[in-house]
Each structure stands twice: as structure tokens, then as C-alpha cells.
Amino acid sequence: MKLLNALLILFFLNSCSFDDKSGIWKNENGSIKEEKDIFKDFKKVTSFEESFNEIIPFSKKTIIQISKPVISEKWNDIHYDFNNNLKNFQYNDVYQVILKSKKLSKNKVNDYLLFSNNHLIINDEKGNIIIYSINKRKIITKFNFYKKKYKKIKKILNLIVEKDIVYISDNLGYLYAINYKTGNIIWAKNYKIPFRSNLKIINDQLIAANQNNYLYFFNKKNGESIKFIPTEETIIKNSFINNLSIDNEKSIFFLNTYGSLYSIDIKTLKINWFINLNQSTDINPSNLFDSVEIVSNKSKVLISSINKTFIIDSKLGLIIDKFNFSPLFKPIINKNYVFLITKNNLLISIDLNTSKILYSLDINDQIANFLNLNKKEVKIKSFMLVNNEIIIFLKNSYILNFKINGTLRSVRKLPFKLISFPIIIDNSFYFLNNKNKLIIMN
């Protein structure tokens, strides 16, 4: 009887909501759903080294000095900069809605927004490229490259903008360029094999990679191939997307789905060095390589694998240090400091000069203590450096403001559901809500 009572009490406690008032623990649908596991039907036959889960408080003797906030006027690359790094952005910190557009698309829209010359550029799974004028407050161009025979195929587009031109690669093997103000196509090529990377532009070259891990250099004026570099192929395709980053206009870094990082000289297009970071010898599909985007600064490159984060010398390709955790999103490097969020929701800062962890704090604990609630797990959408603070966007549209030392300063909720990754333009937040309407907050 005692055992039965104990089980009933345990069931009751597990069924109770941790928070009935604030809604901070809930997602958009009122409950937190588990992320999809594409390998759920495969049995794991090996186990990785236990992931880092240590809490390291910030020392008051330590001083973190980051760069001054900057005003961003454009967002031409989906990862913002040539090296995929975000800056410390300036924002008015008012959170007042100054624009709410009409619905921009009835289809599912890409998470990434682009912004150029007062125009928002988005694309959807039907292959539409939609240009919204901020000044005119309306869609000025809607372009679709694809013929009727591709109508039922989901299009995965990769975009980058330079001046008035949008360059696009897709999962059908097409590469093309359009003038986004007029909607006129400039050139188009069919390379047959699906592209599978972000795009980069350096000088007159457009750079992309396909699903077979071939790195291509194209003439951006006509789309003709200048050179391609074959790298290791993987038989089983996973969810990781090949990633490109450019370091000081001297080298391009290419991280392929096999887990190899290549450094290529921009002038000669020859390989400087390469290193494989997929340290698993297990052929189990659940152990395929996974990572977030490459982030680099002048002398170091940050790369992650399924359960590791590596600091690599950008000139020599040597591993300077590695940590037993993997970031949930690409890290942010500011001066000599790294800020990242791990897959188990730890907010971590690292001194790049010494490889010392300055602090490691549990975001869920920070929220629970700040709001005086029982602890539960939140789902994180993205994070940025804004006004010398770390801003974390939750999937349920809450915003967390952390001081640069990891102290939670405020918790607030946006008036709209956030579905895209937010960007900051001219002191304002831009994002799409759950109805595909552009929201600008200042």
C-alpha cells in the first residue's frame, strides 16, 4: 500500500506544471516538445565521453572588456559577416513595435533574413524570393525561378547579397543571380548536383559546396566554374550543412560533412592545410559528423563536433585546445573572448589567449532563481551580443538579458511569436512572426 501511495505521489508531482503564471518554461504550443531525432530507430553501440556539465562561477577579479556596440546597416550574409561572426550590436532597448507588415508569404519561410539598402530579402520553400521595401512598406518584387515540373519539390535555397544582386544556390543543383530590385535574372547555371552550403563572396568569386563535398569557385559575373576542389564524400547524408568562412580575405575555411576542415589560399586557390575532427571510428549512423558554423578571428578558428569544441590555429591548422562540450549555435568571438551556449544549456565564456573558462552557468538555473520558480528546461532559438550584454531568444518568444559576466538581468516576452532568426538593423530588431509578418521593434 505504501509503495502504491508513493507511486501516485510521484506521478502527481511529475504531472504538475512547474510554472502556471509566467509561461517562461512553455513553448509556442504550450508545452515543450522533444527535438526530432533523425536516428531514433538506430541503436547506439558506443558511448561518448561524458559531456561537460560543470558550473563555474564568474570571478569578481576578472574583467571582460569587449568592443563598443556598433550600428548595423546591412545584413547581406545569412551569418552576418565574412567570418560568420556577430558583432556587439547597438539597440535602443525599448522593445516598442514600430512596424508590422502584411503577410509576406503563405508558405514556410527560411529562418534567415537578409537586409540590403532598406530592403528585406526572404525566401520560402516554394522557391519564392520576396523583396520587401521598408520605405514603401510593401513587397516590391516576388521572383520564382522554377518551372512547373519542380512545383511539388521543396526548395532549399542558399542566399547571399551584394549591391543589388542576390546570388542563389539550391538543392536541385541550380546556381543563379537576380537583380532583386527589378526581379530580372542575370544568369543561371545547372550544375546537376545539389548545393549544400552557405555562400561566400570574395572579390569576383562566388564560393559554394555541393552535397558530394566538392568546393567550387565561380565567376560571380556569369556563374562559370573557375575551379573545384574535391574533398572526402560521405555515403550517408545527415543534417549537417557544409560551412564556409573567410578569414581576413586571405584564406577560406571549408568544413565538410565528413568532419574535415580545409584552409584554402584565396589568391592561389591551393590548400594550405586540412584536419579531420570527426574522431569517432564508429560507423553507426548516429555518430555521423555534426557541427555548427565556423567562426574565426585573426589567428584562431572555432570548430565543434558532436561532443567537442576545438580552438585551432588558423595559419597552421594545429589544435590549440579542445573542450568536452558542443555549442548549440555558432559561438561569438569578441576581442579575445568567446561566448557560447552548449547543447545542455550552459552559458560559457572562454578567454581565447589562455583557453581558460571564465564562467559556466546553467541558463535554466539562472531563470529559476531570477523568477523564483522551480527549474525546468527552456528551448533556445538564438543569441547575440547587444549593448554589451548577451541576449538570448527563446523559442517561446521570451528574451533573456544577461550581463557580460553571465548574470541574468531581465526576462521579458515579445508581443509576437518569433519564428525567424532575429537581426539588428539601425538600432532595431527585425524578425518574422508566426504569421510570416515582418516585425520591427525599436
Structural features, described:
By secondary structure, the chain is mostly beta strands. It has one domain: 7 Propeller (Methylamine Dehydrogenase, Chain H), CATH 2.130.10.10. 5% of the residues lie in helices and 39% in strands. The protein has helices at residues 2-15, 363-371, and strands at residues 88-89, 97-103, 114-116, 119-123, 128-133, 138-144, 157-162, 165-170, 174-179, 185-190, 200-202, 205-209, 214-219, 225-230, 243-247, 251-255, 260-265, 271-276, 295-296, 300-304, 309-313, 319-323, 332-334, 337-341, 346-351, 356-362, 380-386, 389-394, 398-403, 408-413, 423-425, 428-432, 437-441. The strands form eight sheets. The protein has a five-stranded mixed β-sheet, with helices on one face. Strands 2-33-32-31 form a four-stranded antiparallel β-sheet, with no helix packed on it. A hairpin with a 2-residue loop joins β31 and β32. The chain is globular and about 55 Å long. Mean pLDDT is 89; it is low at 1-18, 30-36 and 38-48.
